[in-house]
């Protein structure tokens, strides 16, 4: 895994020269978990450790391929921990790492902001119906 330097930058002056060796900390944070399903996975794992099939059953309309990719990504980014309990039976559980747990207040704030400010947004059911078309 390569190391990257992350800076804190919300506003950039147009006259400022581009910084090719730096990334915006907001973008870096969003890239860590911003996808259609990663916040959902994180929220379910906040409740308790879960196995792959439990996650697949509880998350509506997620494909097995996408779930596997997201679990690998989240593990690579140290957001979740993959724990193999029995090598013969391949019993694996996923749980949040300390880094993953540190995302929970941020996700809660995003949820609170959305509930307070986005009264006309689509419901989860409506979003899923759009993706099925």
Protein model, in words:
With 133 residues, the protein is of the alpha+beta class. It has a single domain (36-130), classed as Arc Repressor Mutant, subunit A (Orthogonal Bundle). It contains seven helices and five strands. The N and C termini lie far apart (38 Å).
Produce a short descriptive summary:
This protein has 133 residues and is α+β, with helices and mostly antiparallel strands. The chain has helices at residues 25-33, 38-47, 52-58, 64-76, 98-101, 104-117, 124-132, and strands at residues 6-7, 23-24, 50-51, 80-86, 91-96.
Q: Give the overall silhouette.
A: globular
Number of helices: 7
Beta-strand residue percentage: 5-15%
Instruction: Kindly identify the CATH topology.
Output: Arc Repressor Mutant, subunit A
Q: Strand pairing plus helix content: what structural class?
A: alpha+beta
Strand order of the largest sheet: 3-5-4
Organism: Chitinophaga rupis
GO molecular function: DNA binding
Protein name: Transcriptional regulator, HxlR family
Keywords: DNA-binding, Transcription, Transcription regulation
